[in-house]
Write a structure and sequence with these properties.
mainly alpha; 9 helices; 2 strands; 68% helix; disordered N terminus
């Protein structure tokens, strides 16, 4: 099914990641698991009535947060001490709205940066609109598929960039003034950001306003 989806999106199979990228991907996956588990335990704490259970949950959350901090240190150390991860990480941080977590996700989950064009990257990131047709029915074009962690990271980065970067802020404002809903405008900003990243990594350049 995955290969069929790649072919439908005109995506060539990608080679296995380098060992450093594979290690980073494992660490990022572990971080995501811990964040999810902490969120679930906090939800349980919110509805806990029994004082002992509440105390037990708080204790577990403290342990989980300690593990999360350790994983984040491992991620940062790996990125800082390995080339080309360190160079790519610095380049990503030059983009408004791309912090350590989003940068790590992109490094781990989107190693094709600099190798594929922005349309292919948008499909991989789950930001490309695809048809939802069936028989004679022609549905709305929706974003679906791709790598969910990358899509979430790009969405977060786009929200930040459209708030703090004047170029992306103006772009979002134009879209919303044209009647686009907030979420649609942010997704458009996310695609624009991905196009910028594709250009940056293709040329080996840091972010510049002129790139946008």
């Amino acid at each position: 099914m995955g290969r069929a989806l790649d072919l439908a999106m005109d995506l060539a199979p990608t080679p296995p990641p380098a060992p450093d990228r594979a290690q980073l991907a494992a660490l990022v996956a572990r971080r995501e698991d811990l964040v999810t588990t902490i969120g679930r335990e906090n939800n349980r704490l919110g509805v806990a009535v029994d004082p002992w259970i509440a105390k037990e949950i708080r204790s577990l959350v403290r342990v989980l947060k300690s593990h999360l901090e350790s994983v984040e240190v491992q991620i940062a150390t790996l990125i800082e001490t390995r080339e080309p991860l360190a160079t790519a990480n610095r380049r990503l941080h030059s983009v408004t709205g791309t912090g350590p977590v989003v940068a790590a996700v992109l490094l781990a989950r989107l190693p094709e940066l600099g190798q594929l064009d922005h349309r292919q990257l948008a499909s991989l990131a789950g930001l490309a609109p695809h048809a939802c047709d069936s028989g004679l029915h022609r549905g709305k074009r929706l974003i679906w598929g791709g790598r969910a962690a990358v899509r979430r990271g790009r969405y977060i980065a786009a929200k930040s960039a459209s708030q703090w970067d004047p170029v992306f802020r103006a772009f979002r404002k134009r879209l919303m003034e044209a009647g686009k809903p907030f979420k649609v405008a942010i997704i458009a900003c996310a695609r624009k950001l991905l196009t910028v990243l594709a250009t940056m990594f293709k040329k080996g350049e840091d972010f510049r306003k002129a790139t946008v």
